[in-house]
Amino acid sequence: MIHFFKNIIRRIRITDTWLILIILAFGAILRFWRLPDIPFTHDEFSAIIRAQFSNFHDLIEKGVKVDGHPAGVQVFIYYMIKVFGVSEVALKTPFILFGLLSVWLVYLIGKKWFNSTVGLVSAAFISFLQYTVMYSQIARPYSSGLFFSLAMVYFWTNVLFHHQRKYYLNLAGFTIAAALCAYNHHFCMLFAVMVGITGLFFSSGNNRFKYLAACGAAIILYIPHLPVFFNQLSIGGVEGWLQKPRFDFLFDYLQYVFHFSVFVYLLIFVLISLSLYWYELTPPVNRKFILISAIWFLLPVLIGFLYSRYRSAVLQNSVLIFSFPYLLFLLFGYFKTVSVSRQFILISLTGLILIPSLIFERRHYTIFYKHPYREIVAESKKALDSLGIQNCEVILDTKKEINQYYLNKTEFTGLPFVYLEDTGGKRGLVNFLDSVRTEYLVFGCLSSTAWETYAIIQEKFPWLITHKMYNGGDFYIFSRNRPIKVLNEYFSEITNTFETIPFEWGYVNQKQCNDSPLISGCKSFQGDTLAEFSPTYSNGLRGMILTRDDVIDISIDLITPQIFPGAWLVATVTSGDKTVYWTSAAVNEFVQPGALGRAFISIRISDIELRHHSLIFTTYLWNPMKLTYTMDNFRVRLRSGNPFIYGVCKNCQCLKACRDERFMVDKHWVSQKSS
């Protein structure tokens, strides 16, 4: 086989330059594939909305300072919109090009630090991994920061280790690239500082003075941005939606960037094994660059972790992309220069594993390319066309500004819909649904939507006929009356009617179960002035659920007194004496004091840390004022959720193994996957 490839390569005279061009060609195909169909992400829309100002001053004051990122990319997007308008092709193309240029720079740096084999293998990973492909397709400061940081390292390498040629040109390039890193992203700036400090250990004499002058010039170039930096520093991190990292963050990160794939892990093992098998002491591996790679990759992780744990959460997968190439150098830096035929085999093997993994395991082009904002508008239009506009009520829980973009783009401005936030809270939603007279209710929502909204809607429209799932949202069609075909996502239900008490509720004082007053059946539970807590449902969590995607819906019927300051429906998950998860919903959000109503609370299993042992799920009514009330139909139901709501992760790589095959067929899984 090797002789076969040698003959082919000899005939067409392939060199390592041809190999990097092949890598770039496939990287371009992966990034530009169906470019007009690549949707804007929520973060991109945020940047676009914050760029809609008539002057530069307002852009900085209202579009940059309120955000957590430096001004560079936001200013770039501002001028791009002024010239080309808002379109996916115009705004994403520059960042895709940044991503492709980053592939080229990884090759050049790897070749300078080690040899062409290391450069080619590392460039192939940058070209084919979803981590770098996806962030190249997002108009945010990640692929641009990767390019600027690599350009800085390229010039830095020439200044310190190859300063015989074009010294001052490389010194200027280092200065400008370092300043651009600082204007691009705070973690990119952190990386530039690390590179600058590292250079002090490899410079001496007159060269050190010039190097320090270049570093000082980069700092001077950043001075105009300092007021923005200090303003953003006072804002802190993004703990409104980003959790503090766990101690195993690095392990999860490595699984994520390598596709959670056994095939990719085996590929890396084979490549490392080959590098050691072909390893020779002459010429020796440049160990200082192995050490530099280790420091440059690990130090941002450590700094981000400590800052996130002890001050404000900032560490996430995206911010480590600037140091990611040096992980690849650390893994593959022991390759020696091998023949072009062997290089061709290594690159082919890498592509044959990573590209199918990107397409089929990560499902990049079927999940990432379906954004809920665009799909919800399109599906709503289809529903109105097929079911009749007079037969449908449409409720959307999306951002108005973003939703309007797709309404205008599809020229479908006549969509009759109501925004969930305009219904007036949870009790307002219940009242609104009571006023709806249509046969069907269409509901589109994001992952930020309260999980109990589904259960609230199903109380009034009990039959689900469509559920389309996206990364970041869902689309539903509910029916008031039973149609021919229905979807039942509930797979478990237990209700305490207080006629006979299910054992999961433990001890219940039978004297408190009577018919005065009565909600339904023959008995209801009467809460007295002595008890702070209602009868409690308790069960082992792992025995209740099928997958991490499942949702637990809890509801309770209540009659409260005219004066009822407050009670809460509570759901907890505990492990021994430790509370792993706790949430509550105020009864007054649903039930009018002195009237009969139904309170809801829902939790998604993936929001719970499941790594603890012996997890116990508990739910009850907490009545701290110890006021009387009547309770009935305490119900706990479990339903399947959207496995793509947070993207494709390690928990949904094996859908065939962890989900009931019959359930998939009932949900028309084949058509859903493409949605």
What does this structure look like?
The protein is of the alpha+beta class and 675 residues long. The protein folds into 3 domains: 2-368, no CATH class; 372-488 and 648-673; 491-639, Jelly Rolls (Sandwich), CATH 2.60.120. Helices cover 50% and strands 15% of the residues. It is built from 27 helices and 15 strands. Strands 6, 7, 8, 10, 13 and 15 form a 6-stranded antiparallel β-sheet that branches. It is elongated. It starts with a helix and ends with a helix. The model is unreliable at 650-675 (pLDDT under 50).
Described by strand count, sense and barrel closure, the largest sheet is: 6 strands, antiparallel
The beta-strand count equals 15
Instruction: Please indicate the percent range of residues in DSSP E strands (runs of 2 or more).
Output: 5-15%
As for the number of domains, it is 3
Continuous helix count:
27
Indicate the percent of residues in helices: 40-55%
Q: pLDDT under 50 segments (min length 5)?
A: 650-675
* First-to-last CA distance: 42 Å
Radius of gyration: 29 Å
Mean pLDDT: 88
**Structural class by sheet pairing and helices:** alpha+beta
Shape: elongated
